[in-house]
Amino acid sequence: MRADPAEYKLVSPHNLQGVLSLLAGDPSHWLPIAGGTDVMVLYSAGKLPNRNLINIWNIPELRQIEIFPHEIRIGAACTYTALRIHEIVSREFPLLATAASWTGGIANQNRGTLGGNIANASPAADSLPALLVYDAELTLISARGERRVAYRNFHTGYKQTLLAADELIRDISLPRRFSGYISHARKVGARNAQAISKVCLAALGQMAGRTIHDIRLALGSVAPVPLRLKETERMLTGKRIEPALVEAARKIVSLEIRPIDDIRSTARYRSVVAGNLVAEFLEKLAAEGANA
Amino acid sequence: MSPPVAKSAKSEVSFIVNGEAKKVLAYPMERLLDVLRNHLGLTGAKEGCGEGECGSCSVLLDGMLVNSCLIPVAQADGASIVTIEGMSAHAMMKPLQEAFLECGGAQCGICTPGMILAAVHLLEKKPAPALADIREGLAGNLCRCTGYMQIFEAVSRATRPRVAQ
Asked: B11-84, superfamily in CATH?
């Protein structure tokens, strides 16, 4: 049943301190809303349990992208459009810019935010595997202070995170040390725009001649959380790329992931596609290594 | 246990709609789409899916293409909004309308306001888009009549200089 707007409050503090004070007063009472691309879908369907919302759209501190010599800091309420058009994000973090271009259509990219994608914590979110391979860190802020956590530890289970009820994600930091890596992003879904992935891959690699010097792999939609393939990476590092290695990689990928059957795909299909995507990246690395 | 029900109060929202200053008294969580249609009588934006998948409620909010079904009206306070009704004076409107007519880009018409606004949003950034740009720019707008090819052709034709008959 359609929600009745008379039963929902939405307050707009217009600055970060105002938001944090409200959250500090009665944390379980409030749900922050930025671009609304997740929250409003639930609301419209009459399925939003929270009746008290805080508007965090247009809080200046959450909308900036700051550039430092060793890292960039992306405000949590930066939109996918802001990520796509940002020169340094596109140049040094192409996996993130590409994932932003996959997310929804243009209208949703103009409203959907990176922090929202992280807090919503869907294992199928397109931008999250990129954050894993880029070693992102999150700054979480509350009236109690702020703390910085490694993004790889942020998701503690299906739709569960380290975020306390009175905390907001303030920004996402990415170290600027991956621009020399070969990168590869692939989404497999029913269609490109507006379709949630069946499987998506973010991958980085560095070759030393024909040998893998460093490799970083993360997949979406294959586990309860966005998943870094640590065991596959360990097995591949220092190896020369040959057909037998690619086959061994497919096998270890299928053991490392925990896909399920759901409305978008099946566990079996996801497992095969996950192996194919990693194999495709290894072939790309081999080709680039041979050309170097 | 169901959560306690917050009784909300209406408040005044001021914005510019199609170039005119407007004030409405609305609940802050009323959807911009409903305020445009029910308070202001602007029925060009349609409700298709109500969940940001179909683009038939597209409007421009401070120049950005958005789905008005996903925007609480309080977030539009102080903004400038353009709906299809406000597009008649836009420089791209005549070529787009003519091209949509010539190519069969509109059939039942439900998606057309959103398609036109998505096309304008694209052409303002990329005046000479490739087919891939048109496909991407319109990918958030669903059409169940045309099969899309006529719409892509119309947007492409609207950007080409017209040959005198």
From this structure: Beta-grasp domain (3.10.20.30)
Which residues of B lie inside 8 Å of A (Cβ-Cβ)?
3-8, 26-31, 50-53, 55, 58, 64-67, 69-72, 74-75, 77, 118, 121-122, 136-137, 139-141
**Which residues, 6+ apart, have CB-to-CB distance to A164 below 8 Å?**
A27, A140, A142
Q: How far is B65 from chain A (nearest CA, A)?
A: 5
pTM, full prediction: 0.94
Structural domain of A248: 182-291
Q: Which class is domain B93-158? A: mainly alpha
Quick one: A38 and A108 in the same domain?
no
* CB contacts, 8 Å: B35 with chain A: none
* Residues of B with Cβ-Cβ distance to A45 under 8 angstroms: 50-51
Domains B11-84 and B93-158 share a fold: no
Q: Which residues of A touch B76 (CB under 8 A)?
A: none
Q: Which residue has the tokens 């409050």?
A: A9
Query: Which ipTM score applies to this complex?
Result: 0.94
The vertex-B65 CA angle with B64 and B68, nearest 5°, equals 115
Q: What is the pLDDT of residues B7-26, one digit of tens each?
A: 799 999 999 999 999 999 99
Q: Is B71 within 8 Å of A37 when comparing Cβ atoms?
A: no
A127: nearest Cα among A116, A138, A137: A116
